[in-house]
Amino acid sequence: MGFCSNGGRFDAFDYGIVPLGEWCQLDGAWKESKCRAGLDWYNFDPDSSSTLVGACNLRRGLSPLQTELEALVWDMQSMLVNNKRRMNFQTDCADLVKMVSKPRDWPTFEILLEEVEKCKRKFQAFSLTHIPRTKNTKADKLARHYKKCPLC
């Protein structure tokens, strides 16, 4: 299930329909036994065939879902800094798509979801789609690597 900034919804990858244009895959790596979490994004522009990549780590939050949400916020902020205003964000976390489409159903994450809404307003076009984990391998590998780097 995807979410469009105009309020419409679409099932993108579940049925093989891929939104056209620039996309950015994101991931957060979280492990309860580790004190750090890894965040990353992988951006691709099909018009220019250019890629941008970002990865970092931070202190582990309370849950894997919080880490995924923090990854989305950082990803959105990074795309805005790079003047990318039309973006299809892609995640392998179905709950993240649900959170963004119905933020009132997730009061525990209110502060981070408010930041998502604030960032969304700055995009000319915004979508968030769920993709299979097997299609998010570049972002997944980066997040797992940077989770291990204490000073990255």
Automatic annotation (TrEMBL):
GO terms for molecular function: nucleic acid binding; RNA-DNA hybrid ribonuclease activity. It comes from Microthlaspi erraticum. It comes from the Eukaryota. Residues 26-145 form the RNase H type-1 domain. This is RNase H type-1 domain-containing protein.
